[in-house]
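Aim 2 progress update. The chain analyzed this quarter is reproduced below.
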Amino acid sequence: MDNKIKTNVNFVVEEEVFKERSTPEQTMYMCVILQALLDATKPTYRDEPETSVLERDRAKAWFFASVGVTSEDFKMVCDYANIDYNYMREFAFKVLKSGEIQYTRKRINAVLGH
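Predicted C-alpha cells:
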C-alpha cells in the first residue's frame, strides 16, 4: 500500500514522518496540523450548516494568516511539530488548489488512523 500523501505538485507527507519525530509531543502537533488540513479541505454540500462553513474557513485562515495571533499560533504549532511553517503553508496551498483533495484527505485519514 502506498504510504504517501501526494499532490500534483510533488509535495509529499509520508507516514514515516511520525517515526522521525523524537517525542510524542511532536507527533501530536503534527496530528494537529494534519487535522486542520482535513478541516480546511472538508467538502461543501447543499444546505450545509453555517457552522460547517465557518469551521472550514477558520481552518484555511489558520494556515494562511500572515499577522496576528492566528499566524503566531500556526508558526508555534509547526515549530513544536518540528516542521518548517513555510513548507507547511505551501503544502496546504498546493493541496487546496490541486484536483486531488479527495485522495489527499483519504491519505491523511489513513496516516491519522481515522
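Residues 24-40 form the longest helix (17 residues). Strands lie at 4-6, 12-14. These observations will guide the mutagenesis experiments scheduled for the next reporting period.
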